[in-house]
Amino acid sequence: MAKQRVESTARPSPAAPPSRTISAEERHQLIAETAYYRAEQRGFTGGDPIADWLAAEAEVEGRLNRVH
């Protein structure tokens, strides 16, 4: 009796992309843009720029930590 060849349809999972460390300038720019968008969402009225910055910093750090 001849053996049948069974081909696997499973594909190897791609390697995870290499992690990249961002510079202090890139991190600062990401936080500044995120803080700007927070202010923009409320129409640039009210709010506290420092609170926007701190919230943006926490958001960016969270995103960066998920990547690495």
Short characterization:
This protein has 68 residues and is mainly α.
Q: Helical content, roughly? A: 40-55%
Q: Can you give the mean pLDDT? A: 82
What is the CA-based Rg, rounded? 23 Å
Query: How many runs of DSSP E, i.e. beta strands?
Result: 0
The rough form would be described as elongated
Strand count, sense and barrel status of the largest sheet are: none
What count of helical segments does DSSP give? 2
Q: What are the segments in which pLDDT stays under 50 over at least 5 consecutive residues? A: 6-16
Please identify the structural class as seen in this structure: mainly alpha
The SSE order reads HH
The proportion of strand residues reads under 5%
Distance between the termini: 53 Å
Report what the structure shows.
The model is unreliable at 6-16 (pLDDT under 50). This protein has a domain at 24-67. It is built from 2 helices and no strands. The N and C termini lie far apart (53 Å). α1 (24-41) packs across α2 (49-67). With 68 residues, the chain is an all-alpha fold.
